[in-house]
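Onboarding guide, step 5: your first structure request.
Type a short instruction followed by the sequence, for example:

Predict the 3D structure of this protein.
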Amino acid sequence: MFKPISLFVGLRYTRARRSNHFISFIALVSIIGLTLGVAVLITVLSVMNGFDRELKNRILGMIPQATVSSTEILPEWRPLVELADKQQHVAGSAPFTQLQGMLTAQGQVAGILVSGIDPKFEKKVSIVQNYMTAGSLDNLKDGEFGIVIGKGMADGLGLQVNDKVTLVLPEASPSPAGVVPRFKRFTVVGIFSIGADVDSMIGYIALNDAAKLLRLPDGAQGVRMKLDDIFAAPEVASKLLNQLPPNYYASNWTETHGNLFSAIQMEKAMVSLLLFLIVLVAAFNIVSSLVMVVTDKKSDIAILRTLGASPATITRIFMVQGVIIGAFGTLAGAALGVLFALSISDLLGWINTTFGLHLFDAYFINYLPSYLRWQDVLTVVSISLLLSFLATIYPARRAAQIQPAEALRYE
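The system replies with structure tokens like these:
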């Protein structure tokens, strides 16, 4: 089979055993460095993508993505819901009333953010119904004073479905015994588990029960919205606010969790930059290995030149050798990185459980997420191959500049 001379000789040089074992060692280090750099970069990018996805799907699936609220209770909140549903990017809307307090049971106390909701509408804007481990949102009925809490809260207070729990509000009420906090007894009618910090922070009660606790008429404080584009939240809230009277105000998730999202994006960018530098260093190892090969093959180059090989042919011979080293290291790293990205969540979860570690306590979710994007794999592989190709240019041009007479003088 016909092969171009540059490809033929380049492949032979790549497979040939060298008398100078140090050169082979440098080439091996180049391949290993490139493999590890690419693998780690793909794995870390997948983990960062996992955190990004979990923030969007879980945290932002629980908290209001955009809200419009009134300074007064809204007895007739349905027209506001209908108006919100007509806005661009709004996938669903629901009424809410929000209050803060403390839950106390069995001598334990924990702070909680309670939302008064209508279960029928809440399912349009929240993922909580999909993560119920006991009970249901439908068990929240006006006047029955039921509460749905997260698994973290339930475990911390030692609660199960049908247990009683007391909600203490920060507002004080005068009584013959003096000023005492306002409190109300609730029954746990549901427990959800999102696998994030919200499991021990958020609770749900019936919409009108929340109004009664605040000593207000039946109704809602405002409307929360679920969006098909979370980054449109400020614009959507602002446009809806412009269609309402002056006693309304708006908020969105960027004001409450925007810093967390920005931190993830910044960490992803900085870690990617640092790991790309590792790939760059590995690519420069190709330069050193090829420079040594050129020095070792001076006589071979001189003979090829005397047989009629052009400087361009010599350049291509060593570029072939460098590109093969780069391609082998890159593809091996890509395969290893994809394998790690697909299995790292289960692997670290098993280590965390088996050895009783607390590896993820510092994060907003209680496990290590990983989300492999093939676009990232393609980008990393392309950049690594490009760096490997660029690393071959200097040694190959140096080889082409060798003069046959000078190289053979002392042979």
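Each response can be followed by summary notes, for example: Residues 129 and 289 are 59 Å apart (CA to CA).
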